[in-house]
Write the structure tokens for this entry.
Amino acid sequence: MTLSTSHRQPLAEEVTAKLRAMIHSGEWQLDQRIPAEPELMAGLGVSRGTLREAIKALAHSGMLEVRRGDGTYVRATSEISGAARRMYQDHTDEHILEVRLGLDTQAARLAARNATADDVTALRAVLAEREVAWHAADFEAWARADWAFHARVAQATGNPLLHELYVSFGDVFHQDLLKQQRKGRMDGLTYEGHGALVDAIEAHDADAAVASVNQNLNSCAEWLRA
Amino acid sequence: MTLSTSHRQPLAEEVTAKLRAMIHSGEWQLDQRIPAEPELMAGLGVSRGTLREAIKALAHSGMLEVRRGDGTYVRATSEISGAARRMYQDHTDEHILEVRLGLDTQAARLAARNATADDVTALRAVLAEREVAWHAADFEAWARADWAFHARVAQATGNPLLHELYVSFGDVFHQDLLKQQRKGRMDGLTYEGHGALVDAIEAHDADAAVASVNQNLNSCAEWLRA
DNA sequence: TAGACATCAAACGTCTGATGTCTAAGCTGG
DNA sequence: CCAGCTTAGACATCAGACGTTTGATGTCTA
């Protein structure tokens, strides 16, 4: 804590926090339109200007999209994923994948070092969900479970920052997966490999975990280039 | 502009962009107080509400700090470094270092694959600066050169996203290094190692580059724990 | 003279009301 | 059934006023 903020928090900040909480808690779902300004004014007991400052702040960070004449929509569930959205806009899939590979590798290494038995159990459970969705050809459920697996690995590292990054980037990556599917090029290339990763984590074998991730994502990179 | 803005961009967005440009261009320096709202209103030709929305957006992203009764100050030079500032506030040095290790490793691997002769030349130049600063006991210059080296490695990867991340996080990491120095525990542990990394990059030896980074940052991690 | 206190101007925080502009949906006539 | 028009609702912007906080200045006292 560098600055001792003796000055009390402005009202607009509180309102921003409340709106963020509404989104994060899921009360306002993704892509849903939130109530109009007058209604929110009444509900929160603040003036238009204050409310608009709060909304604009969240809009600027990418969580909300304000459509003039229409309404305001939830576009992301956290600030970081808002940044991720812009990231996706400005960079190619391959470059993003390279950065992800760096994080995935490190996550695998740390998870192998720090994962508990509960972590391993949870990982296998998510993997089972993923398999069920695969066989049911429910692509959306599969993508969700796939990302949940990666996020769970990050959680198993015991590094909250890494976990936060994965959770926050989740909906953007998820959306990207869906986009890939629309290209009609989703064969089962990442179907295997995750099981080996869990085995390596359970055995606390960091090298094997890293190797598993490398193999998995390298093939994914080739697939992107194809 | 990637998104087809069928709807015209709101005025407040334009103002936000102008303010951001003022900061990014260096016209408003770090920690400097920007002109008061009435003055900006006149200069930009917008009403106070519109101006305040723009300011608040930047404040929320961490670039500006608005101090009631005093004025508004520049606190970061980009949105990402604003996010980095908050990241530093919420997580321990060790966890941040773990994430950085993941990125540094990947940067080294990709730089070894993609670096050009010019990249290598530039890297050696930065390293020379760093050494000069070290012998001159100019810690600030050393920290700046050290980070410039890492950023240059990221640039050599040919991955603009990775480069952007390093550049944007620069001032925050730089500040962190200075904080470490204040703890009075800055011995020359990272003095060596970077030379070996450049050699590996020049030889396009990815494994050696990764090994160099691992050794370097692992010792750094131990130093943090000490 | 040095420190504590009172005062003031500047700057941001918030509220209110009015008006402009855009969007999506409903209506209408063919 | 559809194309074009109309309209209600929603956000965008402006203007003015007043409240609250802060930093600086001046003044008084020990």
